[in-house]
Design brief:
Elements (H helix, E strand, L loop, with lengths): L3 H4 L1 E3 L1 H4 L6 E14 L2 E14 L3 E15 L6 E15 L17 E3 L1 H11 L35 H13 L1
Antiparallel strand pairs: 1-6, 2-3, 3-4, 4-5
The protein binds zinc ion (ZN) (2 copies).
Amino acid sequence: MSKPDLALLLEVGFIANEEVGYSRVFDFDFPQLRLDEDLVTENLSGEIHIARTANGLLTRAHFTATAKATCGRCLKAMAQPLACEFSELFTLPNKADANTETILPHDGKIDFAPILRDYMLIEVPISSVCRPDCKGLCPTCGVNRNSEDCGHEQNYVDPRLAVLKALLDNEN
Ligand SMILES: [Zn+2]
Ligand SMILES: [Zn+2]
């Protein structure tokens, strides 16, 4: 697995030395890349477009990936698709003022891993669903209702609530 601190570290100082309007595109493709303690992406691919502007470097990026997840309804292992876009302006140190948000590092290197991590984490749903019409597990007998029709009442119940319901039923 590639280390994220190196995988997305770009040497962009040379772009700062180019004329306004110059741009370069960097392509990325990683079979697997850990972006965060809790986020291992697979098939991460995307590009970062970097353009020299009057005040610095304007970066625009888009990435897609999948992450291992569990369907919140049927508990099946699945690949959660993720996609994000972001744009960041890195101001040249000599153009920076009080309003500057991000200054281009003096060594001319930008590490996009923490930026990508922040944007990708926003995209991770609180609960994944393997497909929009996933019927989930039967709260009564636990069969996967996508593959089997047990004949029990077909109202959807969150499996976590189903566990709670079973506990309450036991107490009664
Ligand atoms: Zn499912
Ligand atoms: Zn059932």
